[in-house]
Design goal:
This is Ribosomal RNA large subunit methyltransferase E. It catalyses: uridine(2552) in 23S rRNA + S-adenosyl-L-methionine = 2'-O-methyluridine(2552) in 23S rRNA + S-adenosyl-L-homocysteine + H(+). It comes from Iodobacter ciconiae. Keywords: Cytoplasm, Methyltransferase, rRNA processing, S-adenosyl-L-methionine, Transferase. The protein is an alpha/beta fold and 206 residues long. The protein has one domain: Vaccinia Virus protein VP39 (Rossmann fold, 3-Layer(aba) Sandwich), CATH 3.40.50. It contains seven helices and seven strands. Helix 6 runs parallel beside helix 7.
């Protein structure tokens, strides 16, 4: 089957992408690693010994970054609907984040302890219907924020990918109710045509 024009354009962009080549060179599973690395350079999210929850982790580039920074004394707990090849030092649960049984299985890994940092790069499978895709994206973000309210320590940090559009203002308001400070981050590794942005909640309110 012949590729569509949009598919061909994506393939050309991907092949010529600086961050794709850099990811292969440095051993990261996806170019998304450089988004997290850039944000961490500015905001110092990671340090040795932290417990980190990685929501929407596959193929695992964010978990790779997190595990490198937290070291042997830290833990990374990853979750995704898709399969993820194991990473040393990362506990992984495969399943739907919106499923209560999967979420219960995931929180069991924490053994009653709250995490220090939640990172979330989740996005729904794109249907091409902009309204539906935005609604599904915001739903995932809301689920992540619910998780944060229960499983993130007071003064902890939460980094989440959000697509600007319907529900963004309301979500920002909910973030500000939960954290002492909320800032936006737009890393250079984000594609120019993407309307994604990252919200960083700092110091979760008790």
């Amino acid at each position: 089957m012949a590729r569509s024009n949009s598919s061909n354009a994506w393939m050309k962009e991907h092949v010529n992408d600086h961050y794709v080549h850099q990811a292969k060179k440095e051993g990261y599973r996806a170019r998304a690693a450089f988004k997290l690395l850039e944000i961490n350079e500015k905001d110092k999210l990671f340090k040795q010994g932290l417990w980190v929850a990685d929501l929407g982790a596959a193929p695992g580039s964010w978990s790779q970054v997190a595990s490198q920074y937290v070291g042997e004394s830290g833990r990374v707990f990853a979750l995704d609907l898709l399969e993820m090849t194991p990473i040393r030092g990362v506990d992984f649960i495969q399943g739907d984040f919106g499923n209560e049984e999967v979420l219960a299985q995931y929180t069991e890994l924490l053994a009653g302890r709250q995490v220090d940092l939640v990172i979330c790069d989740m996005a729904p499978n794109i249907t091409g219907n902009a309204v539906m895709d935005q609604a599904r994206s915001m739903y995932l973000c809301e689920l992540a924020l619910e998780f944060v309210r229960e499983q993130l320590k007071p003064n902890g940090y939460f980094l989440v990918k959000v697509f600007q559009g319907y529900g963004f203002t309301e979500y920002m308001r909910a973030m500000r109710e939960t954290f002492s400070s909320v800032v936006t981050r737009n890393p250079k590794a984000s594609r120019d045509r993407s309307n994604e942005t990252y919200l960083l909640g700092k110091q979760k309110k008790a």
